[in-house]
Design a protein that fits this description.
By secondary structure, the chain is an alpha/beta fold. The chain contains 15 helices and 12 strands. The longest helix has 33 residues, at 344-376. It is globular and about 65 Å long.
């Protein structure tokens, strides 16, 4: 796909992951762009995720043989070409036509996992039919346990071997952008007009997604949320199904119905990490939900080292939040993560350019990682350690 005119930031084709944010902003209706781009409350934790990563300095080393740089690693027994996983992103099929399938194909072509969200537009079976690589499945613990059990069984039936259990959604954080633009909450007649104009002023999106991307339903939740995907339907489901009574004891119920690897996503505290591993988690994702849940919590990169130390070699530690470049990936690996999950980067990319956009973002990450490995003198990502970073006190 060639980018022309208003699709090009500053008249240029995208050169970095961050360029795709501007492309997505121009292409998407405001309410959908804000859904991807926004965080909770004043968005301080969302901003800190990226800012704290930016303050970490790599240690440049010279005169080392870096003629071959190896970016592959193993996560939960699966060989990855890059230490990157496409994170679960809800409503992604509203950003581009059947976006979850497009992203899953780009991930499979790259040799990395795609993680399907519970609240995706494309259902589990559609994603499985659209790609030849097993993907991961993300689950919320619902009030209706039988429906959650059915989702786990459906995921296993199509070959999913990794379940990512999101544990930081006992209640939904206040996302003020979504309230302001009418994605959630009551709509006055005036706000309905504004929303209608917002949609109508993005004809490419209307043609590609609103018309060409149907059915716009929650593919995994059609029995629970029948009909079209609307803000009211989404909010009704989250209010009725997110379960604030979930405790650590519920992991035994998950283990009873899930036969593969179990990952806990949404851990920020070392004590919770230790408890999760003791309860049978195979991996931990250090995550603050991209700054979309409780604001004023630590950035994920600042929480990562203590959790790595707490878990040791008992489980694998992954991380998400604020990762926008291959240099960021190298930093989180140096601080002990086995791999990282990226959400917004692939969401921006699929909105802007579909499957090719996601593939391009992954190529950008690969190239930036290869440069970072070459100039830090660490030719294999599996050998990255804290020695690859300059201590903050050293300037």
């Amino acid at each position: 796909m060639n980018l022309t005119g208003r699709d090009r930031p500053l008249g240029l084709a995208p050169a970095s992951v961050r360029d795709y944010r501007e492309l997505a902003r121009r292409r998407l209706p405001r309410q959908l762009f804000d859904y991807i781009d926004g965080g909770a409350y004043e968005e301080t934790s969302m901003a800190a995720n990226a800012a704290d990563l930016g303050r970490i300095r790599l240690r440049q080393r010279v005169l080392r043989d870096v003629s071959e740089r190896m970016l592959g690693t193993t996560v939960l027994g699966e060989q990855l070409s890059l230490p990157v996983v496409l994170a679960p992103v809800g409503l992604a099929g509203m950003f581009a036509r059947r976006a979850e399938v497009q992203a899953a194909r780009a991930a499979a072509d790259c040799g990395i996992p795609f993680c399907e969200s519970t609240v995706s537009i494309c259902g589990i079976e559609e994603v499985a039919a659209g790609t030849d690589r097993p993907f991961w499945y993300q689950l919320y613990v619902m009030r209706d346990r039988s429906y959650a059990e059915d989702l786990m069984h459906r995921a296993q039936a199509v070959g999913c071997q990794v379940l990512v259990l999101t544990v930081d959604l006992a209640v939904v954080g206040a996302r003020y952008r979504d309230v302001r633009n009418g994605l959630v909450g009551p709509l006055s007649a005036a706000r309905k007009l504004v929303r209608g104009y917002d949609l109508a002023s993005h004809p490419t999106w209307v043609r590609d997604v609103a018309v060409g991307g149907k059915p716009l339903t929650f593919g995994n939740l059609e029995k629970a949320v029948p009909g079209a995907t609307t803000p009211d339907a989404f909010r009704y489901w989250t209010d009725s199904q997110f379960d604030p009574s979930v405790t650590w004891d519920d992991l035994a119920w998950v283990r009873e119905h899930w036969l593969g690897k179990l990952v806990l996503k949404g851990i920020l505290d070392p004590e919770d990490a230790r408890e999760g591993v003791a309860r049978g988690a195979d991996a931990i994702v250090v995550s603050n939900h991209g700054g979309r849940q409780l604001d004023s919590v630590p950035s994920t990169i600042s929480a990562l080292p203590a959790i790595v130390d707490a878990v040791g070699d008992q489980a694998e530690v992954l991380v998400d939040g604020g990762i926008r470049s291959g240099l960021d990936v190298v930093k989180v690996l140096a601080l002990g993560a086995r791999a990282c999950l990226i959400g917004r980067p692939w969401a921006y990319a699929v909105a802007a350019r579909g499957q090719e956009g996601v593939a391009h973002v992954l190529r950008i990450l690969r190239g930036e990682m290869e440069v970072a490995l070459g100039l830090t003198g660490v030719p294999d990502v599996r050998d990255l350690a804290r020695s690859a970073l300059v201590d903050a006190t050293d300037g």
